Amino acid sequence: AEMSTEETSPSSWKKTALSANMLFGMGNPLLDISAVVDKDFLDKFGLKPNDQILAEDKHKALFAEIVKRNKVEYHAGGSTQNSVKIAQWMLQKPHKVATFFGCIGKDNFGEILKKKADEAHVDAHYYEQNEEPTGTCAACITGDNRSLVANLAAANCYKKEKHLDLDSNWELVEKAKVYYIAGFFLTVSPESILKVAKHASENNKIFCMNLSAPFISQFFKEPLMNVMPYVDILFGNETEAATFAKELGFETDDIAVIAHKTQNLPKENIKRQRLVVFTQGKDDTVATVGFLSALVQEQSLEECIRAGHYAANVIIRRVGCTFPEKPDFH
After folding, report:
1. Which end of the chain is more exposed for a tag (fewer CB within 10 A), N or C?
2. Which of 218, 329, 238, 234 is nearest to 282 (CA)?
């Protein structure tokens, strides 16, 4: 991973013991439906072999078809929800270091997500509504490639005033030291993200964001740039970094230069210099999470990177977002 960092490295952060709700995540809780498909299937729905997109009307039939495949698997998913789960797994004890907010439907898929969050010892507080069903994400697998099509449904119904603003929920936000929200949530509730980001900035806590997918920088640049001044750590992979650079007119495709220019974008809390973590390779999201788990323990930057590599190496060998009983990372 390319990094650019200067004076304020995490090693200067105060060491504290882990306690409940120290890591806060908010995003789109989705049930992943994954199946091996062929090129014809991708072509039929106009999908690239490796991509992440939001479902449109033309993809409705895709969801009906993918569940009929012979080897279909269901996993609790959603980028941020997966991230906080793996972070909790890396940390092991105490339970519920990780908090997660998002919106689901009152249905079977929603119950599965609740059960899975519980099994992962994540303190999930879902806003439940019955206008839309729980969101799903079709993972269309060909060889080593995954084309992800997200049908947000309920996930898109998250309401700041109906959930985040409630005292009992906001108290959990205040308990956190590290915040992580994937860029994907910018399509749902930018006002919720801003409220959390401003809280982090005003209280000198760490707010992390992920560029998530090229379409975020392309079509949700305005909400993304509204949050950027509050972002202490920005994650992304090389494709997302290149798209982001293009959208901002950086006129370079050198990843180190993009990282440096991104680091120097305007920043609200000047006590913390922005850290930019651009990963190269398939295991980018998982590396992010390992990094987060070390961050919550207030380890040095080197440790954060090492933890990121460890998580990536273990989880990448398994299908979907599954992990062994315990990490053997020391």
Report:
1. C
2. 238
